[in-house]
Amino acid sequence: MLASAGIASAEERSSSRQDRSDSAPYARTAGSSVIQRQIERSTFSTSGEEASDPAGLPPRDKNIELVSKLSPTGGPGGSIAPGQIADIAVHKNAAYLMSWSEPGCQRGGFFSVDISDPARPRELKFVPALPDTYHGEGAHAVAIDTPAFRGDVLVTNNEPCTDEAPGGFDLYDVTNPADPKPLVQGAGDFGDDDGTLEAVDPVANSSHSSFLWQDGGRAFLVIVDNEELHDVDIFDVTNPRAPRPVGEFDLVAVAESQGVDILSAEQGNGGEVFLHDMVVKEINGRQTMLASYWDAGYIQLDVEDPSNPKILSDTDFTGKDPETGSETREGNAHQAEFSRDNRYILAADEDFAPYRPRDFQITSGADAGDYPATEVGGGTSVASLPDGQLNGPTVYGGYGCPDPDGAGPRQGSDPIPPRDQAGLPPLQSGEEAIVVLQRGPNTPDTGPRKGQPDDPENPEESCFPGEKAAQAQAAGYDAVLIVNRHTTGGAEGDSPFCGSGGYPQGVSMVTLCSTHETYHRLFDTEPQYDIPYNDAEEPDVGDVGERILGTADFDGWGYAHLYDTAGGKMREVDTYAIPEANDPRFAFGFGDLSIHEWATDPDVDLAYGAYYAGGLRVVSFGESGIREVGSFIDDAGNNFWGVEQFTDRDGNRLIAASDRDFGLYVFRYTGPGAAPRRVAPATATQTQPAQPAQPAQPGPVGPRVRISNRALRLSRAGLAAIRLACPSTARSSCRGAIRLVSGRRRIGARTFTLDAGRSAFVRVKWNRAAIRELRRRKSMRVQVTVDATDAGGVRGTNTRRITVRPHSAKAPSSRPR
């Protein structure tokens, strides 16, 4: 059976990191049967080009009004190319659309758009990225007020198209959105993977996402480091013209140092552990980061001291998949947002592969048996073959990288043997001719072997899986099996990891990935992992190998979660997917039907979701779960990536979304539970379209019931008497519920009613298991959460931790409130 590659050590995890040239800066559609699985953060699907296909999902506009849309034309090449637009940031009266990349890597940058009149957005300016670099995920714009800078700042990530191009991040002064000014470009981590951020390289590491926040008189920035295990990089940008490193962190190591194991529970399918995205929000006076850590789940951290992050809680992917019933959940913790009251997080698991390998076997020879395998992002699934399986004889084709000038196999690499000259045995009915290609080759750019090829016989630059597949297709093969190369983790770090992406237009090739051990077993040689390679112990190009068999099961597209943030292990309340995402009839030819990201409303329990070809979705959420209340797909289809909520100068709650093939969409949700119009002061007519309107005034805030922090002891009857106070500002009364938890343990709950300005003890009955645990431990820290509404129906939440001791123990002295 197919085995997943669990990540158990730093060496094993490092073997799954890709070199810049291992993962494509862009992916190009390989036909309507393409399945794009995002294994690596810098790869994305372009099968959204199929969203306008007649077979795409039908248009819809349930409870969503299209206010306007704009396709920019002022960038390189004029009109938007399919897949060009990436994320969106919205700040004051401007939207910023990130321009990703395309085969020539000449369109990187961002568009500034005036949305002061949301019904008539106007393109202001295109700002190019640094040469051979592009922006993508996690663009973010905020107002900064520090001793060194006062104004509006936009942060963008940088992902390079070449080894020489810069990574890291850019900061722009967008106080005037019509004329953004660079503050710093190409800043980031120039160091090794050692936790120091000390500069040793000429360009910063590639970065996939970024987030900017201010805390008091200082401003900070966190980015995703694509190239290191220490992939949480934090910088002090109090002076945005001169960022200073704060620290780089491997959250697995951070958790271990604090006695927390974020990997002990079941991980997602594939076991890839890395940071993909993050947000930071002040909660109860503390700066709190929410990190999306792929197959390890979602992690809350206290970053009040950014140089010393502390793990607060996390999620995992334990148990059967709640949407499809698969034995192992897919995982892929991609992006998440806190709810308005921080009680929940809305999480998005991105998954471009509605099929996963079921069985992968060597079916002939002395080493016949089961081996681990995965599908390759950008390649075609085995499920697309007429009989739904890949089987047939194999031949070794080397590394299969093309010449940099496109004139054939590059110098130093052996050409792939043409199929008609490879000496393969005759194909049986239903079989395919399969070429085996090795991941890489690799030349380290850091560490003691920096600049020395791992395989001295192949010193050339590595290439993308799609480039290998294109060479295989040109040589006449039906399918490709890519196998992992030698890694620093040796046999322990060997896993089915082969990079992803880079499939040229017109290349539709079934592609699977397996381990380096599989490679040797196929050609009847003993597995070797030494660095540098001993060429005498490796198979030769042209060697004919054993037969293989690969099959796949449908496991749906990416979907969403709702988690309760209380406790050390966040509780999954519900999951959500559009119906087509769990229907195998929609696996091919309908575009990507995975969720990408959420934006949560600041006033009501609504979330707005970018769902690629599934369009824009609006859901309500709470303890009863997630319920879809709105949806939109345009007549020609959509391919939504980014989504943000914002309030216009008239106080209307609007939604901005980025369509990868078009540009900007602006919506208004009109269904049940829509955010009320905020009351804003009148403002003078603007003379410059890009100048911001006066900020809208905050909407109504519900009663924040005060909770006494007095330590207490349980009564003989198992009751905890907690004093609550309804603020005098509440309308008439506070009606709500109080909940007690300790870690993952639920202790008790009850409802209450208090008149405005009054306080009283509310007695909460503890369950028997909690009482037994309290007696055993003699003392427990308990989290108390109070949700309440006043007579006007406006809701507020408060949380506090208190110490509780059993009845027989002496209660500690009380502390002042």
UniProtKB/TrEMBL annotation:
Residues 10-22, 317-341 have a biased composition (Basic and acidic residues). Residues 1-62, 305-341, 360-426, 439-470, 677-704 are annotated as: Disordered. SUPFAM superfamilies: Tricorn protease N-terminal domain. It comes from the Bacteria. Residues 677-694 have a biased composition (Low complexity). Residues 30-49 have a biased composition (Polar residues). This is PA domain-containing protein. The lineage of its organism: Bacteria, Bacillati, Actinomycetota, Thermoleophilia, Solirubrobacterales.
